[in-house]
Write a structure and sequence with these properties.
Blueprint: H1 3-26, E1 31-40, H2 47-60, E2 69-75, E3 78-81, E4 87-88, H3 90-94, H4 99-107, H5 112-115, E5 126-130, E6 134-142
Parallel strand pairs: 1-2
Antiparallel strand pairs: 1-6, 3-4, 3-5
Length: 143
Amino acid sequence: MSFFGIMHEWALAESIIITALENAKKNHIKILTDMTIQLGELQQIEQDILKFALTEILTQHNQNKQHVTFHIKIEYTKLRCTYCLKTWGFKELKNTISPEEAEAIHFLPEVAFAHTRCPYCGKPDFEIIKGRGVSLLSIKGKG
């Protein structure tokens, strides 16, 4: 992974923490203890880097007075051809792209449209059904 890839995880972590802290404040949570985060497989997020960044950013916000447990859930990729209607996943996608293309998709999943064709009919028209994006699913803590 490139330096820019690491910075991408760091930027995502910053957004997740800001969102978590805003939600904690609205819900009268003073100390976060658990966070559940969903990662779209298509974005190829490095979980160890993300967890490290989350911990460091919490430290900067003086919120990690206690151990925060990060629960990571992966939403697996599902793509569907708009021509033949067959579906496929990230494994099939990854077999057809270069490492450079994979890194471009890491930053912007929609780039997949420029580098991918249906593995069944060869048409370039498909939709991403699931498996992209990053979501904060839940937070828990103490008041």
